[in-house]
TrEMBL record:
It comes from Amycolatopsis arida. Transmembrane segments: none annotated. Pfam families: ABM. This is Heme-degrading monooxygenase HmoA. Keywords: Monooxygenase, Oxidoreductase. Residues 6-97, 107-199 form the ABM domain.
């Protein structure tokens, strides 16, 4: 499989006077796209001559995974929220065949973060069931990339739940949201009381 990203460019004609509402709505629901594991990022651009014309550019791992997202319920809901603002538009797709980076260092994109939750349980089946319940409740959470349930090879009662998030802001929005406590309630009885706090948030510093 080629490493070249699959690029999608949407041209959107926005109804006059609704530009600001469109931009605000796009930002509010953008996590529905960038939280997808196959998405490499997206950009909203406004025309300089006709400011009611917008271009949405998104990069994907490959076309197959983009098409899977395109036909998903999440994408249909995303489109439904943007539809009231548009009067017309079109979509082009392409594969990037070459990239020549400029010399300006630019801004460094925020690194993904890892959240580690430490648990202790004598009954592995009980904590595993709680993990699966929480994971089902968190499915589709904006910004959540993935999570894993790990068991210590040295201590059969020690467990770790590690989740990956697109960035700190996405994690903070979820953690401070109304659904946070309810969605993680099943795992709370297993928190490792020996640790204070029983969790850690880490930003990626290097990668090979």
């Amino acid at each position: 499989m080629s490493d070249a990203p699959f690029r999608v460019i949407l041209r959107m004609e926005i109804k006059p006077g609704m530009e600001a509402d469109f931009e605000r709505t796009w930002l509010e629901i953008g996590d529905a796209v960038i939280s997808h594991p196959a998405n490499l990022g997206q950009w909203l651009c406004r025309g300089t001559e006709d400011t009611s014309i917008y271009y949405i550019v998104s990069d994907w791992v490959d076309e197959e995974l983009f098409r899977e997202f395109e036909h998903s319920d999440g994408h249909l809901e995303h489109r439904k929220k943007l539809h009231p603002f548009r009067s017309g538009g079109s979509m082009d797709t392409m594969t990037v065949v070459a990239h020549l980076p400029g010399q300006h260092p630019g801004r460094v994109a925020p690194e993904r973060i890892r959240v580690l939750l430490f648990h202790r349980a004598a009954d592995r089946d009980a904590i595993a069931a709680a993990y699966h319940q929480v994971s089902e409740d968190l499915a589709g959470t904006p910004g959540l990339v993935s999570n894993e349930f790990l068991g210590s090879v040295h201590d059969s009662t020690e467990f770790l739940v590690m989740s990956e998030w697109t960035d700190q802001a996405a994690f903070d929005r979820w953690e401070q949201g109304a659904s946070h406590k309810d969605s993680t309630a099943a795992l709370r009885p297993f928190q490792d009381s020996r640790r204070e706090p029983s969790f850690g948030v880490y930003r990626v510093q290097a990668r090979y």
